[in-house]
Amino acid sequence: MWIDKATVVEHLRAAGEHDRAARADRELPERVDVDHHASLLQGLGVDPAQLDGGGGGVNGMLGA
To answer: Can you give the pTM of this predicted structure?
Structure first.
């Protein structure tokens, strides 16, 4: 599954996770392969299973 980096960054910012959003913006490519970047997404607190795969709506991406 592929997602847009902007989707991840904007969701993290909206959740008040500005440091994580900045890290995601620096370290993720424009189009993110969730399988290939799973460990980085996990480190950012992003649960790829909750993503819709495109620049659209996101259903609670942050992990616990």
So the answer is: 0.73
